């Protein structure tokens, strides 16, 4: 017999409702009971539900924070004991039922249930199932059909899954890693079917705790445990108290399984002003990735006019993805770019980046393109064994500058193509590579063209090995043991060989390609004491070179005349003493910093006899710049095509002050190399260096106060005239501000192949307030009186979005005499939907310390 709907009576609340009623509601995360007591505007359902939802936005204690609060689910376990007691169950029964099956607990002012097809709860209704809750004024349920209906200030939710355990605090949950949409909803009514696990709510105000978003939908449907669809939607990641932008969409679909949302026929509005229409927009609701359009980016420069790119992301597989970037120019034909990334289980990971522009209108209808490829592999079964591959190719010399609106990509003259394998352990490092280059047309700083003779050699292939003889240990099994008498010595070996090829087509010099082999064996005997050290070293150098057939023909010599070999011994002595004193310099900072000082005089002697190397080709060797550290080395050459004929003694003096916290406040040194014999081995034509000394070289690094760093270095010629000077000053008064100033003044030094240069760099990043800041950087070539690079921008950040406008003046580094480019770029980031940007990458590349400042600025919420 079917029951008639009863008149509610309070005595029905004593029934054990949890004994047999089973239902799976939307999921539930309750708003505080005070929400139901709030005064709302019943004539405007949207406004009313949004006002009630806003009580779940918890304010932060810092009134100056960009975001005034966060969306937070309340604790889900607070009401369980009271519910059980209200329904006549003990706490143990409640816990067992909650964890073990789908039964739910209920609490209400009035309740009725019959065993056939009707149940009703009314008056401050709270339902809980598996730790989830729902609030309503009234809920009715039909056990046969599984249909339920909630009315009157309905509050429902779908809590995200948390990775942390045993911590129910709101603060903890906001910082945990979450999956799912984390939906909180407020609606006028809710219909649910337990059999199909679907639900429909009307006039819903909703929030997502995982992405900090909220909004309103005319209708929300729960299509499954992981899928939601909303119609006639307002959606934003702004706080409810400051809704600066929102999307008005015909529909939005959320899928917690894929972690994505899809908005259709949406309009981006700033305040209530439409600014952008998107027929289809795919965005994240957690940190997973999925296919969809990314936000477009646009730029304007003096050569391309307006440039607009609309990237589309393809989530092809868990270990493969791609991004397609169609780009439209006002002065050129459209370009299609693509980036493909992959990660394999056994063969490594890599990135393929390519673009193609057909019939460029600004370049006589030429087809233009680039292909960039990088791959890295690491062996699983052999520790420290890896391999790599790199390929760079562009269609023409101006490609890199033409299609980089802000000059983000460095414009190298030589684009590498290499493949190699690398191995290292405690005693051995080895690298085998084959490498060639695509060399572009460029000019030197003085405007002269770069000739074939100045291009790098291809290495086909090259092997580099460094080996240190291990010390003896207890012999086990068949392992060999180094004689203990050798344990007192450090024995090292070095090998570098390769076939070097460079074709000369402009007659800038005769071709000199061939094989080069370099070997070095050295033994040293360190004598270490607390007061200092003394280290004698004995080395043997071997150099062999032989021209290939092309070079023999070009130089009209036979093979016997085209092979050269040199052996040269070397002996050196290196000694230093340590004088340590507690306290600060002159006692100036004893009260503030304390610490200790170390003064260390050092003396280095080195002798390598002269060996004639005039006919040996130079494949990769250059002079090192004069510096404090270089004066204490055994050679002026960087590379292995020359053996330095050095007979010199180098006195040096270093000083260091370390405060009581272990921070080095000052570290500096000065040195000068005195030559007992003239240098006769040079890179080209065996030019000699007959001066008696190198001149003084010095370096210093200081941190005179927290947030201020000074680094400088320089050298003088043997006549005590300035050879070069560098200085870098960096000041960071707080984590959001950064100022730097740098300069270099380098004179011409023909003996060491040093070209003149005078340049200055500067940058300033500082906030105007907690939302606005200025970013700027500049590089100025004083010698040629031209601005190489300058950028000024303004950046705005708040809880809703970030916005930046930059203007930049820059030159092509391959041809600095060409006309400078001017560019303007605007970038907007909708917080919670998009992040990062090309402009941030530019500042990171140009300004030391920018990344740390940027991270702090983004955290300042």
Layout of helices and strands:
Layout: H1 45-53, E1 57-59, E2 69-71, H2 80-86, H3 91-100, E3 104-107, E4 110-113, E5 119-129, E6 132-142, E7 147-158, E8 161-162, H4 170-175, E9 178-179, E10 183-193, E11 198-208, E12 213-222, E13 227-236, E14 245-255, E15 260-270, E16 273-284, E17 292-293, E18 297-301, E19 305-309, E20 312-317, E21 320-329, E22 335-343, E23 349-360, E24 366-378, E25 385-394, H5 399-402, E26 414-424, E27 428-439, E28 458-468, E29 490-501, E30 514-524, E31 527-529, E32 532-547, H6 549-555, E33 563-577, E34 579-582, E35 596-607, E36 622-623, H7 628-631, E37 637-638, E38 647-658, E39 664-675, E40 693-705, E41 708-716, E42 722-731, E43 738-746, E44 757-767, E45 772-781, E46 786-797, E47 801-810, E48 821-830, H8 838-846, H9 850-859
Antiparallel strand pairs: 1-2, 3-5, 4-5, 5-6, 6-7, 7-10, 8-9, 10-11, 11-12, 12-13, 13-14, 14-15, 15-16, 17-20, 18-19, 18-48, 19-21, 20-21, 21-22, 22-23, 23-24, 24-25, 25-26, 26-27, 27-28, 28-29, 29-30, 30-32, 31-32, 32-33, 33-35, 34-35, 35-38, 36-37, 38-39, 39-40, 40-41, 41-42, 42-43, 43-44, ...
Helix pairs in contact: 2-3
